[in-house]
Structure formats: structure tokens, C-alpha cells
């Protein structure tokens, strides 16, 4: 019997995970179904390297015959979505028989979810505010966050056609096999598996719960004309010195506080987007594998409320960030002793030097250590290469 | 040096609603002309902005969020160029009009708060510098707030349920309310970081009541409300409905349209509001004060209806208007002078009651009727078991010789000697270190003008001593919690006699239980700042790893904050 193989590629700061699942056919033969998660990396720093996708996607295409059985886009962050289009532009194409995209990526999602639309609109304004801030003064952290969440920016901002990446993923599978999924989606007929079973633990159908209470934005919703203008290459100009009679220290402190607030808003956007991650549980011949995308604490709490099961494999969420693993639920997910005595594995797909706290080596990653499980790390293989984790059938 | 004046036209209430159904001519966006007055200070003047030494507009362009030029120009009078006017334009929601309305309302609120009919002294902002910034167009949000860290009042705008844009800076109530927070922070800064629900609620209640006083300050609005309510204050009217336009534009959490943010007239008790969040809890204290206003007005109205010295009986409307004009002065003194007597640290509603009664007794020893009614409200609403719990002593052992009052004001050494000498009387526990805050010199009007046209005044020295109590807290945080507490001593400046000693009482088991409950609610709601992001210092959180008391809990009170 063949093994189930989880193959994780080192693509820098991002995810590209191919899961090859051997299944018995009705005729008693074995056929391998290929499940691909994401493919992308961060648009900043050393972790950004579009050239890596050519080789990685070529390898995936070679292993799958150019078509994966199921492609899953966990969420709309560039470190998860840009790889397939980048490879295609380099001449390497990959198709899918089925494609699942996170539910809130549906083109009509915000017309049918007014609460989420309201919150999204507020965050769009914050993102536009942030864009103007980095035009005025360089801010690498903020710029990287804007780029990562730039699906919310108007087309053409940043010189990127951000939505192109997601649009490409909408089309890699036939239209009738392209599905926008959430926890409530009836999966029957939407995937290729006959022996393996799949369950979606997240996201929630209404993603508004992933957003906070909202907060102020520096610009108002009706000033779209001005906001659009501000997304052009030329930065708008405001007063550089306080008006006569205004305390200069207070004036500059106030502006600094407004910028800090925008950074907080951007952080909230980023967290909310992470929480829209598709979290998929795959059961195969007694093994339970959990692929968590970049789910953060709010999503984990909801998953816990809906029922979390111990897993033999965990794709560590959010590249090993401390906010991708809920410490209080960790024993539930991976008890001290394996309930059935089987070996257990964890995978972190990450990169050094992009974020101060990612991966969180001393905290989060230290949880995923023997005797609890074996930790596999994409940093241990060369850029473009992959590591394998096998589960005996 | 003569006073400097700026003329402005200010909205009487909200931009569109308050007078619409009153039958008063011009109902709708009614304005009245006010004179903003700077006392003859050679180093202060009105500038474009508007701005002056203590208050300045900082405007931001809504399309870009960037700071813009002063939206309103100061136009000097030809005859006296230091005085002049800020001229509004024809667009009610223009940057100019919003800025003038916000500045003028803040200016008038500060003037009212510091006048001799209230504190009788200038207050120093809690943020330690001289100028309060007012941001009339801060951005998009259904909110407004005072923020100590940015030394500012910030007013946002939003699109309401009707589709119309609501500018919070155009609401007299909201502007006065937020300015009330800034002023209370200047007088009682320790409330900003309270852990006791009642302490947090006091901030909200006082801010609401400052808005009521500012509403009462408008003759036009007084007339309109009395006309609408048949010369009574009981029942819903423009004074009890804080932030009417805002409240109508934003449905409540249950989706049901509401009349305003909070109704100040209610029958709540501490029992019916057990476990309520600070915003809601505040309405209990507000109602006690509002009921007192009712009592004062009713008494004055009865007197005003009597024939005058010439035997002429005034019309009910004239009598009511006169009575309400006087009632607002009496009420302003009653409320705000009590605020000045508050001890430092965490406070309970009963502490506010004690301070208010002590301040009123110090200024009007013979006028006990209002105080008795006020005490009765605290008992009726189960804040205290008996009225005696609200009494505070006047220990003459705290008196000083008249010639030592000034040195007690000026000299830290003398002040600490004084507190050390009277440790036991002040209630200072043995061995506990303490702080004597900068002393306050206040001169207040304490009665009606006499035949000579001069009102009697009283000069007071207010001494506040602060120290910390500690307790164990529960909840997932657990650990130790510091509970700031303290006492206020008030001496009559001319004689050195003790007018009042007010001690706070927040270390009881019920207050500890409430602090634990508030902390647990915040934890459950995820409302406590973690150290994930930057700037946790500006967010509600724990004071430190070793102190599970709250920091910046004032932020829970943003106009549409924790309670939505």
C-alpha cells in the first residue's frame, strides 16, 4: 500500500503544500488524488521571490500530470495566492478538477452579507489611509501589510492588479467545480475523494464575527473621489507645520496617534483575513490531518466551540506565529499522549527575517516537539525544494 | 486690559432635530449668537482656527485625512481689533461651520465649568500642557471621545440609518459631553484609570450632566422645552435626551430605534442595575441629579408664580422660564462644586453624594431642603442604606490659623506636615505612604446678588491626599490589585476653619466584587489590550503585570464604545 504524502515546499514566506492521497477505486485498484493548498509568498523582504514558483509549480505539475484533483485557496493573502499566476506567466500552468476558495472571496459575498460589508468598508478606508501614510513617509512594515492585504485596495493601487491573483484561482477549475466554501458548505459532490473524508472546520459563513468592533478611519466614506486620487502615485499634501496658535507638540502627537491607529486597523484587517482561512480536516485510514491555513485565535475559538478532534498531523497555522496556535486548546488538538498510539507530526511553513515574532520559535514551535510530535520545517530544505511527511496506508 | 470677545453663532442643540416639534419659530437648525470672552490677558487672543491659548481647532481634510488650514477666520472689529467674530457660511455642514460650532461650544462649556457659579477657578488639563485640541472632522466613525494621550477631543461623522451624514461636532450635547470628560479629568484625574464600575460610570454621568447644564444655558432651548412640556421638566424632553440626533441615527444593540443615547430620567436602583456596564450604570447617578434639578425647579417655579412687589402675576411661561434660568445656576453650583470636593482615587456613587452634600453645605449651610431630597434619592435607589452614610464631618481639629492657609497652599513641605499631623483624622492607615496633591485656591459665588448688585463669595482652600490600598483580585488574571483612595479637606481661606472632610469608601467587599466582575467582563469580551500590537498604553488594559487594576478604563466610555 502506498503512503499518504504531505509535501511542503520552501517558497520563502508562504505556503505551498501538496497532499497526495492514495485511494482504492471500486475496482480494487489504487489511485492517488492530489490536494494542493495555496502557493504564494510574501511581497516583501527576502521571503518574496516569484522565481521560486516556476520550479515549484513545475514539480507539482510533474507529479500530478498538470492537474490537481482539488485546489484549496485558504484565504486572500498574497502569501497564499500569487504563486500559480506567477508560474503561469513564466510558462508553467497548473489546472484543477475542483477548486475551493474561501467563502468571502465570492464576487457577490458582500452584497449578501451587509454586516461584513460594513466592516469591510471601514477597513478599506483604513487601508487607503495607510497607503497614503506610506506615500508620505517610508514605513516598511506598513507597506508590507498593505501589500499583503491589498485585495481591499482599488484596482491599480500599488501598481499591482491584486485581484488578478484571486481571479486566476477562480478559473483553474471548471466553473461548476469551483466552490466558495465555509463551515456550513455541503461538500457532497464538490471533491474527488471516495475513501478519504473531508470536513471543514472554518471559516464561518458570516465572517463579520472575525472583525473587531471597528474603529475610526482618517477619511470618510463619501470622499471616494479624493481617496481614489490618493491611491495614485503622487502623495497628497497636508499641512507640514501646525497652524498659528496651535501647540506644535500636541499637533504632531495627534498626527502620530492617528497613524498608530491606522496601523492598529491594518493589523485588524490582517487578522480578520487570516481568520477567513479554510481549515480542512482530512481523515484517511485512521489518520486525521488538519490543515489550518493562517487561522488565528478568533477562528480557533469558534472551531473549539464547534468541536475540535485530536489530530495526527497539524499544518501549523500562520507560519508559526504565536497568534496562530491557541495555547489553551493545544492539548485538545494534540494531547500529551497520542490517543491511539500513532505517531504525530506537525509542519511549519515559514521563513526568517520578515516578522519579528514569526516564527515564534521559543513559544509556539516549542509546543510541537517530541515526545508530542515531530516537527517538520520548510526552512530545513533549499529554496524551491520540498520536504515529505509520510503516513502509512 | 479689557476682555477680548469673539462673536459666534452656535447651534442650540443638534443640527436638525431638537426644536422641530416645539412650535418655537425657527424650529430646526436653530442658532443663537454668543460672545466668547477671554479675560484681559495680554498673552491670549482669538486666532484663525478658531484657536486661543487653551483651546484650538485642528481640522483634517475628509478626503485625505491630512491636516488642513484653519477652516474659520477671525475677523477683527474695526473699532477694537483684538475682538471680532468668526463668520459662518451658508452651508451648515461646511468645515467652517463645524469648526466654529465645536470651538464655541467647548469654549462655553469650559467657561461655564470654571466660572464663579461653579468651580470658581481655572483648571489645569490632566495632560499637563495648556491647550486642548478639538478635532471637529476626525474621520469616519459613529463616535466621539476625549483622549488624554492626544490632548484632544475628537468628533467623527457617520452615515445614519436614514442615509444622512451625522456630524457629531454639530451636536451641542455631544460636544459638551466630551468636553465634560476633559474637564472632569482635569479635576479628578485618577478616575481615568479606574477599576471600579461606579468610578468609571461617574465620568459618564458627570459628562452627561455637563451636557444638560449646557443645554439649560440656552435661553432658546429652555423656552422650547418648557413650551413642549407644559412647564414641567418631568418626562422625556430635550434635556433628558442626551445626543438626540446621534441616538436616532444609530439603532440600539437590539436593532430597535432609540430616542437618544441615554435617558437621564429613570427609576433605576443599584439593585436593578446590578452587574450593568458603566454606560448604563451611569444613568442611575444622572437620574439622582436630574431629579434634584426637578426639585429645585419646582420650588422656584412655585415662588416665581407669585405676584411681584407691584402685585403683577407673571404668566406661567414667564415664571417657568425665570425659574428654570435660576434653577440651572443652583444646579450647576450643586453638581460641579461637589465634583471639586471629590477625594482622589477610585470612587463610588456614595462618595459623589458625600462630596456634593459637603460642598453644598459649605456654601449654603442653611439650605438643607435640596440636600435632604438628594440624600433621599440615594436611599431610595439603594445606593446607601441610610442618609447618615452620606454625611461627612467638619472636624475642627483640621482647622489652621488664618495666617497659615496661604503657606498650606504654596508649600509642599507645609502640606505634607499638615497631612502627617492629621493622619488619623484623615483616615490614613499607619505606615502607608501618601501624596498631597497641588492645593486648589477657589473663589465661588455663594448667594444671590444683594441690593448693591454684588454677590457674596467664599474663598476656599482644597487639599487632597492620595494613597493606595491593595487587594487580591480574582478572574483569570488574578494577583494583586492597587486601589487608589484618598481624602479631601476643605478650609475656609479667610478663617482657616474646616468646611469639610470627605473620605472615599471603595475598599468594601461589594466594590471589590464589582471590580472583579468588570475585569471578568472585559476578559470575556476580549476588550483588554494584549501586548500583540503597538500602543497598548493607549488601550484599556491592566496597569502592569503586578497590578490587575485597569489602565485607561476611561476609553470604555467613548460615546459608542464598549457598549456599542
Number of extended strands of chain A: 13
Report the structural category of chain B.
alpha+beta
Any idea what the radius of gyration of chain B is? Answer: 23 Å
Lateral strand order in the biggest sheet of chain A:
6-5-4-3-2-1-13
Assign the structural class of chain A, choosing from mainly alpha, mainly beta, alpha/beta, alpha+beta, or little secondary structure. alpha/beta
What sort of overall outline of chain A do the alpha carbons produce when their principal axes are compared?
Answer: globular
Tell me the number of helical segments of chain A per DSSP (H or I, 4 or more residues long).
12
> How is the biggest beta sheet of chain A arranged?
7 strands, mixed
The overall average pLDDT of chain B, rounded, is 87
Q: Based on the structure, what is the oligomeric state of the protein chains?
A: heterodimer
How much of the sequence lies in strands of chain A comes to: 15-25%
Distance from N terminus to C terminus of chain A (CA atoms, Å) equals: 6 Å
Residue ranges of chain A: pLDDT <50 for 5 or more in a row?
225-230
DSSP strand (E) fraction of chain B? 15-25%
The N- and C-terminal alpha carbons of chain B lie at a distance of 49 Å
Supply the number of helical segments of chain B.
13
- Calculate Rg of chain A over CA atoms: 22 Å
How helix-rich are the residues of chain A, as a percent range?
25-40%
Largest interface: A-B, 43 and 46 residues
Order of helices and strands of chain A: EEEHEHHEHHHHEEHHEEHEHEHEE
Low-pLDDT runs of chain B: 15-27, 531-537
Care to describe what's here?
The complex is a heterodimer of chains A (393) and B (564). By secondary structure, chain A is an alpha/beta fold. Chain A is 31% helix and 20% strand. Chain A has 12 helices and 13 strands. In chain A, strands 6-5-4-3-2-1-13 form a 7-stranded mixed sheet. A 6-stranded mixed sheet of chain A has the order 7-8-9-10-11-12, with helices on one face. In chain A, strand 3, helix 1 (51-64) and strand 4 form a beta-alpha-beta unit. In chain A, helix 6 (140-148) runs parallel beside helix 9. Chain A is globular and about 85 Å long. The N and C termini of chain A lie close together (6 Å). The N and C termini of chain B lie far apart (49 Å). In chain B, strands 13, 14, 15, 16 and 17 form a 5-stranded antiparallel sheet that branches. Chain B is globular, with a radius of gyration of 23 Å. In chain B, a hairpin with a 4-residue loop joins strand 7 (144-147) and strand 8 (152-155). Chain B has helices at residues 95-114, 172-187, 197-216, 219-228, 244-249, 278-304, 316-340, 349-363, 368-380, 405-410, 412-421, 423-426, 509-524, and strands at 4-11, 31-38, 55-57, 74-76, 84-86, 132-135, 144-147, 152-155, 157-159, 165-167, 241-242, 262-263, 434-436, 440-445, 457-472, 480-492, 498-503, 541-544, 547-551. Chain A binds chain B through residues 122, 125, 129, 132, 213-223, 225-227, 229-230, 236-239, 242-247, 249-251, 253-255, 257-258, 260, 263-264, 267, 323, and chain B through 47-49, 51-53, 56, 58, 60-70, 129-131, 133, 135, 137-141, 143, 147, 149-152, 154, 156-157, 159, 165, 532-535, 538, 564. Chain A: This is MBL fold metallo-hydrolase. Chain A: InterPro entries: Competence_DNA_uptake, RibonucZ/Hydroxyglut_hydro. Chain B: This is Peptidase M4 domain-containing protein. Chain B: It comes from Nocardioides cavernae.
Amino acid at each position: 500500500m502506498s503512503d499518504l504524502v504531505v509535501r511542503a515546499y520552501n517558497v520563502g514566506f508562504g505556503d505551498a503544500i501538496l497532499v497526495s492521497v492514495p485511494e482504492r477505486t471500486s475496482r480494487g485498484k489504487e489511485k492517488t488524488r492530489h490536494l494542493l493548498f495555496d502557493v504564494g509568498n510574501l511581497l516583501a523582504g527576502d521571503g518574496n521571490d516569484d522565481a521560486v514558483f516556476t520550479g515549484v509549480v513545475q514539480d507539482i505539475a510533474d507529479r500530478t500530470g498538470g492537474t490537481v484533483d482539488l485546489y484549496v485557496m485558504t484565504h486572500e493573502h498574497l502569501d497564499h495566492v500569487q504563486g500559480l499566476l506567477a508560474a503561469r506567466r513564466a510558462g508553467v500552468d497548473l489546472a484543477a478538477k475542483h477548486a475551493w476558495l474561501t467563502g468571502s472571496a465570492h464576487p457577490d459575498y458582500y452584497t449578501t452579507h451587509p454586516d461584513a460589508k460594513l466592516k469591510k468598508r471601514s477597513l478599506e478606508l483604513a487601508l487607503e489611509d495607510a497607503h497614503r501614510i506610506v506615500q508620505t513617509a517610508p514605513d516598511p512594515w506598513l507597506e508590507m501589510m498593505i501589500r499583503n492585504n491589498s485585495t481591499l485596495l482599488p484596482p491599480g493601487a500599488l501598481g499591482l492588479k491584486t485581484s488578478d491573483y484571486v481571479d486566476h484561482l477562480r478559473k483553474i477549475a471548471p466553473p461548476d467545480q469551483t466552490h466558495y466554501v465555509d463551515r456550513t458548505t455541503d461538500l457532497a459532490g464538490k471533491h474527488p475523494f471516495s475513501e478519504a473524508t473531508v470536513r471543514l472546520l472554518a471559516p464561518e459563513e458570516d465572517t463579520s464575527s472575525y472583525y473587531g468592533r471597528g474603529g475610526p478611519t482618517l477619511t470618510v466614506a463619501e470622499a471616494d473621489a479624493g481617496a481614489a486620487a490618493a491611491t495614485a502615485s503622487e502623495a497628497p499634501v497636508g499641512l507640514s507645520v501646525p497652524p498659528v496658535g496651535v501647540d506644535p507638540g500636541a499637533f504632531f502627537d495627534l498626527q502620530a496617534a492617528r497613524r498608530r491607529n491606522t496601523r492598529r486597523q491594518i493589523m485588524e484587517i490582517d487578522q480578520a483575513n487570516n481568520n477567513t482561512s479554510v481549515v480542512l480536516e482530512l481523515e484517511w485510514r485512521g489518520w486525521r490531518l488538519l490543515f489550518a491555513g493562517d487561522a488565528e485565535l478568533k477562528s480557533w475559538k469558534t472551531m473549539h466551540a464547534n468541536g475540535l478532534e485530536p489530530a495526527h498531523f497539524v499544518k501549523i497555522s500562520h507560519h508559526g506565529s504565536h497568534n496562530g496556535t491557541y495555547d489553551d486548546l493545544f492539548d485538545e488538538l494534540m494531547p500529551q499522549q497520542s490517543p491511539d498510539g500513532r505517531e504525530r507530526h506537525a509542519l511549519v511553513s515559514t521563513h526568517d527575517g520578515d516578522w519579528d515574532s514569526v516564527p515564534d520559535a521559543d513559544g509556539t514551535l516549542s509546543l510541537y516537539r517530541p515526545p508530542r510530535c515531530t516537527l517538520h520545517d520548510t526552512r530545513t530544505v533549499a529554496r524551491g525544494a520540498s520536504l515529505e511527511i509520510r503516513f502509512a496506508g | 486690559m479689557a476682555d477680548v470677545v469673539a462673536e459666534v453663532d452656535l447651534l442650540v442643540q443638534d443640527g436638525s432635530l431638537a426644536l422641530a416639534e416645539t412650535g418655537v419659530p425657527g424650529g430646526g437648525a436653530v442658532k443663537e449668537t454668543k460672545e466668547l470672552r477671554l479675560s484681559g490677558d495680554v498673552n491670549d487672543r482669538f486666532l484663525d482656527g478658531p484657536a486661543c491659548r487653551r483651546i484650538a481647532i485642528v481640522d483634517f481634510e475628509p478626503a485625505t485625512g491630512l491636516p488642513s488650514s484653519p477652516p474659520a477666520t477671525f475677523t477683527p472689529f474695526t473699532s477694537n481689533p483684538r475682538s471680532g467674530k468668526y463668520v459662518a457660511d451658508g452651508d451648515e455642514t461646511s468645515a467652517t461651520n463645524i469648526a466654529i460650532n465645536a470651538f464655541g461650544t467647548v469654549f462655553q462649556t469650559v467657561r461655564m465649568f470654571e466660572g464663579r457659579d461653579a468651580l470658581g477657578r481655572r483648571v489645569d488639563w490632566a495632560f499637563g500642557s495648556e491647550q486642548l485640541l478639538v478635532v471637529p472632522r476626525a474621520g469616519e466613525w459613529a463616535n466621539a471621545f476625549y483622549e488624554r494621550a492626544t490632548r484632544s477631543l475628537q468628533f467623527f461623522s457617520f452615515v445614519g440609518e436614514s442615509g444622512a451624514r451625522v456630524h457629531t461636532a454639530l451636536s451641542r450635547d455631544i460636544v459638551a459631553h466630551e468636553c465634560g470628560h476633559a474637564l472632569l479629568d482635569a479635576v479628578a484625574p485618577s478616575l481615568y484609570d479606574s477599576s471600579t464600575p461606579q468610578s468609571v460610570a461617574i465620568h459618564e454621568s458627570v459628562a452627561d450632566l455637563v451636557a444638560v447644564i449646557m443645554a439649560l444655558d440656552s435661553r432658546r432651548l429652555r423656552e422650547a422645552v418648557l413650551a413642549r412640556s407644559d412647564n414641567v421638566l418631568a418626562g422625556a424632553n430635550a434635556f433628558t435626551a442626551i445626543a438626540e440626533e446621534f441616538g436616532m441615527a444609530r439603532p440600539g444593540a437590539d436593532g430597535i430605534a432609540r430616542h437618544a443615547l441615554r435617558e437621564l430620567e429613570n427609576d433605576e436602583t443599584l439593585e436593578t442595575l446590578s452587574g450593568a456596564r458603566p454606560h448604563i450604570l451611569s444613568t442611575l447617578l444622572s437620574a439622582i441629579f436630574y431629579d434634584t434639578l426637578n426639585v429645585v425647579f419646582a420650588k422656584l417655579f412655585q415662588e416665581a408664580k407669585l405676584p411681584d412687589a407691584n402685585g403683577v402675576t407673571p404668566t406661567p411661561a414667564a415664571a417657568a422660564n425665570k425659574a428654570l434660568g435660576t434653577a440651572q445656576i443652583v444646579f450647576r453650583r450643586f453638581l460641579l462644586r461637589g465634583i471639586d470636593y471629590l477625594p482622589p482615587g477610585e470612587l463610588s456613587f456614595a462618595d459623589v453624594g458625600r462630596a456634593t452634600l459637603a460642598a453644598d453645605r459649605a456654601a449654603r449651610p442653611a439650605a438643607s431642603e435640596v440636600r435632604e431630597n438628594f440624600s433621599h434619592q440615594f436611599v431610595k435607589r439603594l445606593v446607601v442604606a441610610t442618609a447618615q452614610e452620606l454625611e461627612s464631618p467638619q472636624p475642627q481639629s483640621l482647622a489652621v490659623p488664618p495666617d497659615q492657609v496661604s503657606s498650606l497652599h504654596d508649600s509642599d513641605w507645609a502640606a505634607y506636615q499638615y497631612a502627617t499631623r492629621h493622619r488619623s483624622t484623615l483616615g490614613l492607615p499607619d505606615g502607608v505612604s501618601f501624596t498631597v496633591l497641588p492645593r486648589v485656591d477657589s473663589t465661588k459665588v455663594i448667594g444671590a446678588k444683594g441690593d448693591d448688585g454684588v454677590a457674596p463669595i467664599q474663598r476656599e482652600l482644597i487639599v487632597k491626599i492620595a494613597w493606595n490600598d491593595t487587594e487580591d483580585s480574582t478572574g483569570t488574571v488574578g494577583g494583586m490589585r492597587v486601589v487608589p483612595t484618598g481624602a479631601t479637606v476643605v478650609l475656609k481661606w479667610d478663617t482657616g476653619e474646616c468646611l469639610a472632610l470627605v473620605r472615599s469608601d471603595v475598599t468594601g467587599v461589594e466594590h471589590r466584587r464589582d471590580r472583579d466582575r468588570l475585569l471578568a467582563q472585559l476578559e470575556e469580551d476580549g476588550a483588554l489590550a494584549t501586548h500583540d500590537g503597538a500602543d497598548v498604553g493607549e488601550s484599556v488594559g491592566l496597569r502592569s503585570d503586578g497590578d490587575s487594576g485597569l489602565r485607561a478604563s476611561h476609553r470604555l466610555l467613548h460615546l459608542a464604545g464598549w457598549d456599542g
